[in-house]
Design a protein that fits this description.
2 helices, alpha+beta, globular, about 45% strand, about 140 residues, 6 strands
């Protein structure tokens, strides 16, 4: 069985570290995390860029889906990401939750929500389709 990669921000790429998504729970059927939305996530209009929300969906869904197939010597690669943003929160603590809608040996479909921790307002939601592929040696 392959070792699951370290998900700590200190060992992440600059891109992933700047996103700031911290995972609190990662299982084969649930991912829970959080981040602080701030100026590093803003577009030219001082609002969170929708691409940030899309990246959160991609990251949370692919980590959960990869956990689900890691015992098979596989990881999951996002092949379709549909993210809708509702509130372009400027700053604050956001909570992320992801769970599988469908899983089989070849592909998975995960749902992800991003909510304001202070108000429980839904900021964005996404659906990520993934392909299970062998680990690269």
């Amino acid at each position: 069985m392959a070792t699951f990669p370290n998900l700590e921000l200190e060992s992440a790429s600059r891109f992933v570290a700047e996103l700031g998504l911290v995972f609190d729970t990662v299982t084969a059927d649930r991912v829970i995390g959080h981040l602080e939305l701030g100026a590093q996530h803003h577009d030219a209009w001082n609002a969170v860029h929708n691409g940030v929300y899309g990246t959160i969906v991609e990251r949370a869904g692919s980590v959960g889906a990869s956990r689900a197939v890691s015992h098979l010597g596989q990881f999951a690669v996002g092949i379709s990401n549909a993210t809708d943003s509702f509130v372009r929160e400027v700053t604050g603590h956001a909570e992320v939750e992801a769970w599988p809608i469908f899983q089989d040996p070849e592909q998975q479909l995960w749902a992800v929500t991003i909510s304001s921790a202070g108000t429980s307002t839904l900021l964005a939601r996404g659906q990520l389709r993934l392909q299970n592929v062998p680990l690269r040696r």
